[in-house]
Give the backbone structure.
Amino acid sequence: MTREIITKSAEETIAFGRTLAEVLAPPKLVLLRGDLGAGKTTLVKGIAAAFEAAAEEDVTSPTFTLVHEYRGSKANLFHIDLYRVDTPRELETLGLDDLRDGNSILLIEWGEKFPGLQWDVEIALEREGENARRIKVRG
Ligand SMILES: Nc1ncnc2c1ncn2[C@@H]1O[C@H](COP(=O)(O)OP(=O)(O)OP(=O)(O)O)[C@@H](O)[C@H]1O
Ligand SMILES: [Mg+2]
């Protein structure tokens, strides 16, 4: 399954995230791929809304805390940023496996640094100019 869209603003990316509830039905491990500022965290705002797990403005980058958890009625979201995680050993200490259960969705930024991670869905975001982003969902 592949879905592709070009969004022209952050708001459009959030709106697209809101449409992904079915594709991302738990349990899932989701790789969010894309450069710095591509819009990965912005997309998670829409995904969190789709699962009634958090308001858009409450979703912020887990850059320093590494994992943010949003418990919703339809799923528990774990938004993870591995940008500052450098070794498989450090990854191990995050205990991502312990977060996984039938109700969980792990949304992982910079997960491609660790080829050992087995994801169910890959979402790739690419810049197409200042405010345009190409978003591809492969499940
Ligand atoms: N079409 C668009 N979709 C998403 N974000 C956009 C778009 N156009 C502009 N932006 C802006 O791009 C930035 C995306 O930042 P965001 O934190 O979501 O990126 P990121 O991929 O998570 O980066 P990082 O790897 O640093 O965490 C925001 O400032 C957002 O407002
Ligand atoms: Mg981010």
Q: What stands out?
A: The chain has a mean pLDDT of 96. The CA atoms of residues 121 and 139 lie 4 Å apart. Residues 7-10, 12-13, 34, 36-42, 61, 109, 131-133 surround adenosine-5'-triphosphate (ligand 1) (CB under 6 Å). Residues 40-50 form the longest helix (11 residues).
